Amino acid sequence: MYTQSLSLDQEKKLAADTAEEQSREAAFQARIDAGDYIEPKDWMPAHYRKTLVRQISQHAHSEIVGMLPEGNWITRAPSLKRKAILLAKVQDEGGHGLYLYAAAETLGTSRDQMLDALHTGKAKYSSIFNYPTLTWADVGVIGWLVDGAAIMNQVPLCRCSYGPYARAMIRVCREESFHQRQGYESLLVMMQSGTEAQKAMVQDAVNRWWWPSIMMFGPHDSDSLHSEQSMRWGIKRISNDELRQKFVDATVEQANVLGVTLPDPDMKWNEARGHYDFGRIDWDEFWRVVGGDGPCNRERLATRVKAWDDGEWVREAALAHTHKQQQQQTKEAA
Ligand code: FAQ
């Protein structure tokens, strides 16, 4: 008898909790629909928090792994001017990682947890950074195409419903615009006043980076796991396919000005759609790279793990200093 009445109480409590949860979720969705920003101390559904931690931390990892392909060229930049620009760009990417880790931390996940997930291969980062930078032209093409794709994807994130992420993205996007322009300008110099070999080097880099760049936007909307819910929650504002199309339309014109050919025989203007049609993306390649088997996945991860291990003494020293300061403050307060 006793057990039965208790379970009845439990059932009532469960029903009340469910009703309360549903009404909280409805109020939360209403705030999002009204265009409100959600702030760290506000109530949010557990899955909203989880989705944001996943996306923001993947984004942060992409920024710091993204320092590596271009970082390889800092010592080999062709002039002092190009070296200074590249140094500044790579440092900016590190800064973007830091703003983004800080934004993700406001959701209750520590930086150590996020980095551990990266280092153990549990967390993803953008597929694009698993391709090698074989020539100097690759650095320009990364600025033009990779930063160009990143801007297309990230400008709508400045209106993301989660305040700390949206605010971080405003500064990130301003810096990415400079990155895109420096890349395009360096290619323009080579295409307009370079040697035939330099022009061929630019075309070769475009051939290798084009398809991976349009893969950056993620799977087609029909295959995207998270898009529907993320769009309902105002985390994503524009779908993967729509962003990819906007990027293709803008880039074809830029390629014409530059004088390079995009390596897609099916690329052509479609009057009826008012957009460029383009060829089929090799999704097998995309998922292989996302799954850890791209040309540089192992190298990239090993470099990040080594940087983390080599930096241990810095973290220890910083923590020891903080600890000493705290002890001093306690002594002074006593
Ligand atoms: N690479 O359901 P969806 C940059 C995964 S920063 C690897 O569509 P979602 C700056 C996805 O995580 C570039 N994985 O997922 C720079 C999910 O797997 P999960 C990074 C990918 O989240 C420039 C699964 O596929 N930008 O470039 C990729 O709704 C130059 C299903 O996909 C951002 O992170 C991919 N390309 O949409 C730095 C922007 N695409 O998590 C240095 C913020 C998809 O279930 C030099 N992120 N996946 O295991 C986003 O906008 C979204 O997260 C998407 C994916 C659009 C990337």
UniProtKB/TrEMBL annotation:
Domain of life where this protein originates: Bacteria
GO cellular component, one term: cytosol
Keywords in alphabetical order: Oxidoreductase
Record-listed E.C. numbers: 1.14.13.149
Gene it is expressed from: paaA
Organism: Inhella gelatinilytica
Region (Disordered): 1-20
GO MF entry, a single one: phenylacetyl-CoA 1,2-epoxidase activity
GO BP field: phenylacetate catabolic process
Protein name: 1,2-phenylacetyl-CoA epoxidase subunit A
Keyword Oxidoreductase: yes
PANTHER family per record: 1,2-PHENYLACETYL-COA EPOXIDASE, SUBUNIT A (PTHR30458:SF2), PHENYLACETIC ACID DEGRADATION PROTEIN PAA (PTHR30458)
Stored InterPro entries: Aromatic_CoA_ox/epox (IPR052703), Ferritin-like (IPR012347), Ferritin-like_SF (IPR009078), PaaA (IPR011881), PaaA_PaaC (IPR007814)
